[in-house]
Amino acid sequence: MDATEIGLWGVPLAILGGAIRVSTPFIFVSLGEAITERSGRINLGLEGTLVFGAMTAYAVAVMTGSPWLGLLAAAGAGLCFGLFHGWICKFRGVNDIAIGIALMLFGSGLAFFFGKPFIQPSAPDLPAIAFGGWSDIPQVQAALSVNILFLIGAALAVFLWWAFRNTRAGLIVRVVGDSSDAARAMGLNPNTVRLLATGVGGALAGIGGAYLSLYYPGSWTERISSGQGLMAVALVIFARWNPLGCFAAALLFGGAGALGPALQSVGVTQGYYLFYAAPYILTLIIMIATSSPSRSLAGAPRELSITK
Amino acid sequence: MADTVGTAGAPALFGARNYPAALEWAARRAEAFVIPLAALIVGMALFSVFIALVGKSPVQLYETMWRGGFGSWFSIQNSLSRAAPLLLAALCVALPARLGLVVIGGEGAIVLGGVAAAAIGVAVNGAPAFLVILLMGVAGVVAGGIWVGAVGALRHYRAVNETISSLLMAYIAIALMNHLVEGPLRDPASLNKPSTEPLADAYRIGNIPGMDVHWGLILGIVACVLSWLLIEKTRWGFAARIAGGNVRAAQVQGLAVGPLIVGFTGLAGGFAGLAGMLEVGAVQGSANASLAAGYGYTGILVAFLARHNPLAIIPVAFLLGGIGASGGLIQRRMDLPDATVLVLQGMLFVVILFSETFYGRFKVFNPDLWKRGS
User: Fold this and answer.
1) How far apart are the C-alpha atoms of B192 and B194, rounded to whole Å?
2) Could you read off the pLDDT of A22-65 as tens digits, one per residue?
């Protein structure tokens, strides 16, 4: 068998590999958003945080030569954006959704502003682990070359799923998200909890951005994110605020995102742009299928504005 | 602003004997005017700090911005040309906002309105000019209206969050445009920049006499005035405000909330679609990727700055059109990235949203204070 000629089998293989590659930013952004939304706030600004995180990670990696420092800087930048959102939303009359839209534009604008000098130079990549060594087929090897952040994201999903149920911090976030009054009765300050939850959410989104610029696609451009941050927000609703569901949904979205390039690689060029729209269409269909006007969503934090 | 009464009776209040009443009238309105203006100034001050931090002169920046956007007749015309699509794109946010909906996908309606108009313009080539332009306008309005009207329908009948779905629809619209412009509708002669076939010169939308600004500006202003009348003076606008306050209460009152939502979002999308048609008919001459120039996103900021008041949209669109128009000059003169304007817009956006918290906090704006003071 000619190992390089696997024909149409390349499509599902490329989708599998693509799902793993493309899904990682979705995993981090959606886990971050799940924490934020569980505390009763929605942060639509994660799209901007993702772009700014991507730029920060790339710039720091170029300047220091270390992708890990870049990752750390992106998480720090994301934390700042998240804390800002969390702080400003505690004021009466300030709408969390509108602030999210503003931060989406502001984060992207800042990233483009500071990112201009870093479009040309190349930064070191985050390392990947080759799980495909057993095979001689390059496509299999390519599909199973898994970045370490994907594994961390998977572990984080399991940890958060456990932590929401079994730890004091998890309980606090859930109580605040379900009822501000109950939280106050317990002596908790809902604003402080939401500030921290949004901050952590922002930091995770920043890491998602670092993955974009330091691994896949692996360079900084102004078009690096095309709504992943926003789709991740929709994905959290679809996953019913369950971290394990977020992980599964992120894989599904990653697969949809890999459909276009996978078909292109085997020579299907018709409707090329329509396949690129697959993740958006999938998100929309899922939102339509899982929403209902007559009953509120199971598992929804009751303080969350979009499901009230 | 929801509690404003008609302004028609205002001048009579300014008689000498009605002095306290005039003060009360002024206090009621001053808040809606002073707070956004103060927010604008604070936002620009914060931006000055930012510019100083990156080692440039804020004074020079604002001077350049003034020169590029407002300082001469030439630059004012440039700003007005940019304001035209912003007026319509802002209405796409402001009209649904009256129903309590946050629709941010105007960019999609602009793009599809432009493609539909270009396709019609080429298809009926040979017909009289007024008819072709009319058909192009209808095509743009219908395409945009369906796109955003669907968002409203999904919101009401399936409870799909309109903010997220409208932005997803915008991404889908841009993919659809790329598909059509690079495939079925592509003009084989457009090599580097895939476009639809160019419109015949006779079908291009001309300029307002005596100005270097196309008719879209007039159309946009008329749309704003009509929208204001719709919201403030008709029963549909009144019903929309009730539904925006409380959907259940509106339904108990017997209001047909579903048609109201679909109608308002459809109209909003129609305006954005018209903006796309104008970009094709007056600026580009064909549909191509330049349609997704970000007017839809700047329109969101315009609407929020204007606090969703269609009349306030007119000056705000001019202001932001001017800021946008000065971007090129700032880039060349001050060696700053073109995203400088985006940073300013983002800062203004955050500050204006933050300013919402100050409504009702200042005693000066409380009409009762002036009532008692007489």
Assistant:
1) 6
2) 899 999 999 999 999 999 999 999 999 999 999 999 999 999 99
Cα dihedral sign, A129-A134-A138-A140: negative
Query: Is the pLDDT score of A2 beyond 80?
Result: no
The overall longest dimension of chain A from CA atoms, in Å, is 70
Q: Say whether both B366 and B263 belong to one domain.
A: no
Total structural domains in chain B? 2
| Shortest CA distance from A88: residue in chain B | B354
Please indicate, yes or no, whether residues B12 and B108 belong to a single structural domain of this protein: no
Quick check: B247 and B229 in contact, CB under 8 A?
no
| Claim to verify: residue B180 and residue B276 sit in the same structural domain | yes
The CA-to-CA distance between both ends of chain A, in Å, stands at: 58
Residue A130: strand, helix, or coil: strand
Please give the torsion angle defined by the CA atoms of residues A75, A81, A85 and A87, in that order, rounded to the nearest 10 degrees.
Answer: 90
Tell me: do B208 and B92 sit in the same domain: yes
Query: Is A230 among the domain residues?
Result: yes
Question: What is residue B207's DSSP assignment?
Answer: B
Q: Per the CB < 8 Å rule, is B168 touching A283?
A: yes
**Cα separation, B290 vs A221, whole angstroms:** 19
Instruction: For residue A102, give the nearest of B154, B176, B350 by CB distance.
Output: B350
Whether residue A253 is contained in a domain is answered as: yes
Residue A284 burial (CB < 10 Å; 0-12/13-18/19+)? buried
The predicted complex's ipTM stands at: 0.91
For residue B89, give its domain range: 73-335
B8 vs A277, residue with greater confidence: A277
Paired strand residues for B288? B195
CA distance A144 to A142: 6
Who among A97, A105, A274 is closest to B179 (CB)?
Answer: A274
Q: B364 in a domain, yes or no?
A: yes
Residue that has been written with the tokens 């095979």 in this structure? A135
**Stated pTM of the model:** 0.90
SS3 state at B195: strand
Q: How far apart are CA B105 and CA A172, in angstroms?
A: 35
A interface mutation test: which of B42, B46, B56, B349 has the most A CBs within 10 A? B349
A171, part of any domain:
yes
Could you read off the pLDDT of B140-152 as tens digits, one per residue? 999 999 999 999 9
CB contact under 8 A, B172 and A284: yes
